[in-house]
Amino acid sequence: MPFLQFKNVDYSYPSGENDYITALRSVSLTVERGEFVALVGCNGSGKSTLARLCNGLLAPDGGEVTVDGMSTVDKSELYEIRKRIGVVFQNPDNQTVTTVVEDDVAFGPENLGLPPAEIRERVDTALKSVGMSEYAKSGPARLSGGQKQRVAIAGVLAIKPELMVLDEATGMLDPDGRREVLDVVRKLNRDENMAVLMITHFMEEAAAADRIIILDRGSVVADGGRELFSAPEIFTDAGLDLPVYVRVAQKLKARGMDIGCPLSAEQFVAAVKARLSADGGCV
Ligand code: ADP
Ligand code: MG
To answer: Ligand 1, atom 14: nearest CA belongs to which residue?
Structure first.
């Protein structure tokens, strides 16, 4: 059984008296334990709606969302579901509730009713894994955007979820802040086997995932591994950019130099070197 499963999920928002806006149309997808999945789609494609459906903040109009076999419409399971799935939203300022970093991180485990010693241990571990231990006693207001978002991630980690959903959680950060958050999330996925659903419109983040799901106007239009990038029109048709290395590789191809589909600086350099030496060039 998949850990998170959407089966033919529909969702519409009411708009005016008798009208509605369809945000998701028959969406089916899964996230397995330990997987790192990116969900990409342009503005208004339904990404945040999908994030809110994951942990029962919204209930589907049609179809079903299950977490570890529990349906999100079953109110008696919501507590268990929210222990298993943590969601980090876009704006870190809306996610701090107290004036001291460590109290903020303790908020989730306190709500689980855990004993104080266990809460202390979870807070310390969570702050350590996002590299924010030295800020435990600071006020969240004094932190940079990237640091605040790492504290928000620590708050979710302290609940020890099996899946973390990040809804454009790096959207308000500068490139350094984005890298900090992505590094932390990748490490947790790799070392702690925490599953990740990274909702993003930054293609470099999507290229870091094991699997990519593309949402276009409320529907899933592609779901596959990194090989999706070798058919770039799937992304451009959905209104998305391509990772910078894919764009440069396309330009080189148009000039007669096919280096395949590199997704990182390292892969790009290796592909160019391989191509040049295959051509008998000196590298
Ligand atoms: P994304 O996160 O990909 O930008 P959203 O899930 O926020 O997409 O929005 C999907 C669609 O639902 C859009 O057309 C948006 O205008 C609409 N929508 C989102 N939230 C609301 C809301 N609270 N009330 C009415 N319409 C909404
Ligand atoms: Mg959104």
So the answer is: 44
* Amino acid letter, 96: T
- pLDDT exceeds cutoff 70 at 92: no
pLDDT of residue 181: 81
Q: Architecture of 4-226 per CATH? A: 3-Layer(aba) Sandwich (3.40)
Section 158-183 average pLDDT: 87
Q: What is the pTM of this model?
A: 0.89
Question: Mutate which of 25, 49, 91 to test ligand 1's pocket (most atoms within 8 Å of Cβ)?
Answer: 49
Identify residue 223 by its one-letter amino acid code. Answer: D
Residue 282 confidence (pLDDT): 56
Which ligand places an atom closest to the C-alpha of 45? 1
Residues whose beta carbon lies within 6 Å of some atom of ligand 1: 13, 15, 21, 23, 41, 43-49
Atom 17 of ligand 1, nearest CA residue: 23
3-state secondary structure of 242: coil
Domain ranges of the chain: 4-226, 243-283
Q: How many whole angstroms separate alpha carbon 41 and alpha carbon 241?
A: 10
Helical spans, DSSP H, in 112-209: 116-129, 145-157, 175-192, 203-206
